[in-house]
């Protein structure tokens, strides 16, 4: 078992307050020990990032691209070791840890290696300007130029620690920013491992730093530090609002990817293909990291004429999934991240039952010990006012709600404080496209749960502020500067 230090200015730093245990959600055994940060240690990391920022921002973009490409190569080379650690600390299945953690992280470093050399100047046509009391007239040229923000604090979520950090650090570094990362307390070890890999890839010391902590203190110190120029956060809406309040005091830039309560809308005209797609997409709530995914369609809004058919299909799907130890290749549904999260999900299931909903399947713990497991659960006869239809559960639980017409479906879908990712299933994609325009959601999937890597990703309402992904990620981690000259 390894006891880690903070990664600051290109070296491991022994924590002043010692360590805290990181627990495997499947075995309840300690995987390793993470450092407990003090505000002074966070400040040390920020100081290192600030000192390195000017030099890194003036590095040739081709060199920044080369570093990110080498980082991708190293992730491929060490992917097996990193996936094993990810699997142990997150409780993800082997398939999720390897193909949906390490592989997408490689893709993101590759993408922003290309992004580092994307044009960052938008030339603007010259204008003839009349003389004024400020300046003589003339032909005035101009350009809009993307510049680095500066020091970026990256605070990441527990469900996909490495890929989430890669999605923040890669575009931030590509744009010439420096980074101080604060991973989620539940599974920070794989993020700490990125420090030495970056150094091996040729990243200058101080450009990428990692500090960790078991509670909110480290994140609060990072957000409030006056030398941090931007905070990029993925996590709950509740925490996001606190970060935004703190960041606002010093006008820090923020990028917030917060909670979701995705709706999968199955229209009356859905044919067999659309219904099958809907069931598969909704089934990902159970099969994809035990529902610990912010984009998951945890609400299924079904036209009443299709209601029983969809409920029956979802029931068969849920009952077909193997729940078990994530290191077993036959396992599809592993544990939740912690006992506290399991208890929270179970409380929501019990609350739905008490409010009159019907637990079609699941709703209990499997006969598995140790581990923080919840059986895939389908809840039918849910009404839009029930808590299970309004709050993000972050577990393998699906709520099904009937509707009578499209207007009602739109009201229900838009009736929560969230607006991250919704889905529409129909035999008529034109009809689905038109309905998508009425949904207050940052992302819409039509007859699919697939993502497009170049689309802007983010949410409406309480689901966040700003967009990343593709070239939009480069915009997110840059400031626009206007440069004007006399021709």
TrEMBL record:
Top-level taxon in the UniProt lineage: Bacteria
SUPFAM superfamilies (UniProt xref): ALDH-like
Chain ranges of the Aldehyde dehydrogenase domain: 12-483
Keyword Oxidoreductase applies: yes
Keyword Oxidoreductase recorded: yes
Keywords in alphabetical order: Oxidoreductase
Pfam families for the chain: Aldedh
An MF annotation (GO) of this entry: oxidoreductase activity, acting on the aldehyde or oxo group of donors, NAD or NADP as acceptor
Homology family: Belongs to the aldehyde dehydrogenase family.
Protein name: Acyl-CoA reductase-like NAD-dependent aldehyde dehydrogenase
């Amino acid at each position: 078992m390894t006891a880690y230090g903070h990664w600051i200015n290109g070296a491991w730093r022994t924590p002043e307050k010692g360590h805290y245990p990181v627990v495997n959600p499947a075995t309840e055994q300690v995987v390793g020990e993470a450092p407990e940060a003090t505000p002074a240690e966070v400040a040390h990391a920020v100081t290192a990032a600030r000192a390195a920022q000017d030099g890194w921002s003036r590095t040739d973009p081709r060199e920044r691209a080369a570093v990110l490409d080498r980082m991708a190569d190293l992730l491929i080379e060490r992917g097996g070791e990193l996936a094993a650690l990810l699997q142990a600390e997150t409780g993800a299945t082997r398939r999720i840890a390897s193909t949906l953690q390490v592989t997408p992280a490689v893709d993101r470093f590759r993408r922003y290696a290309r992004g580092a050399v994307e044009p960052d100047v938008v030339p603007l046509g010259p204008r003839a300007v009349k003389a004024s009391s400020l300046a003589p007239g003339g032909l005035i040229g101009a350009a809009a130029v993307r510049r680095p923000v500066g020091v970026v604090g990256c605070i990441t979520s527990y469900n996909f620690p490495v890929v989430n950090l890669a999605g923040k650090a890669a575009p931030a570094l590509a744009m010439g920013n420096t980074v101080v990362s604060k991973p989620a307390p539940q599974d920070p070890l794989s993020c700490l491992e990125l420090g030495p890999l970056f150094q091996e890839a040729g990243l200058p010391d101080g450009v990428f730093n990692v500090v960790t902590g078991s509670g909110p203190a480290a994140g609060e110190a990072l957000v409030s530090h006056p030398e941090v120029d931007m905070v990029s956060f993925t996590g709950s809406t509740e925490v996001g609002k606190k970060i935004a309040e703190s960041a606002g005091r010093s006008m820090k830039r923020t990028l917030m990817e917060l909670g979701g309560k995705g709706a999968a809308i199955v229209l009356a005209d859905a044919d067999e293909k659309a219904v099958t797609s809907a069931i598969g997409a909704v089934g990902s709530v159970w099969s994809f990291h035990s529902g610990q995914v912010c984009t998951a369609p945890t609400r299924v809004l079904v036209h009443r004429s299709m209601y029983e058919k969809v409920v029956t299909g979802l029931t068969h799907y849920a009952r077909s999934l193997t729940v078990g130890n994530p290191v077993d290749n036959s396992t599809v549904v592993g544990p939740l991240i912690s006992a506290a999260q399991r208890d929270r999900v179970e409380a929501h299931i019990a609350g739905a039952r008490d409010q009159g909903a019907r637990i079609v399947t699941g709703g209990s713990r499997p006969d598995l010990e140790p581990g923080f497991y919840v059986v895939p659960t389908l809840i039918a006869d849910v009404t839009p006012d029930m808590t299970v239809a309004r709050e993000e559960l972050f577990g393998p639980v699906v709520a099904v709600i009937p509707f009578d017409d499209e207007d009602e479906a739109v009201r229900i879908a838009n009736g929560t404080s969230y607006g991250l990712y919704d889905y529409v299933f129909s035999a008529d994609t034109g009809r689905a496209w038109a309905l998508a325009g009425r949904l207050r959601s940052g992302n819409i999937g039509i007859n699919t749960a697939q993502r497009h890597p170049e689309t802007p990703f983010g949410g409406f309402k309480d689901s966040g502020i700003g967009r990343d992904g593709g070239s939009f990620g480069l915009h997110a981690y840059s400031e626009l500067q206007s440069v004007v000259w006399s021709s």
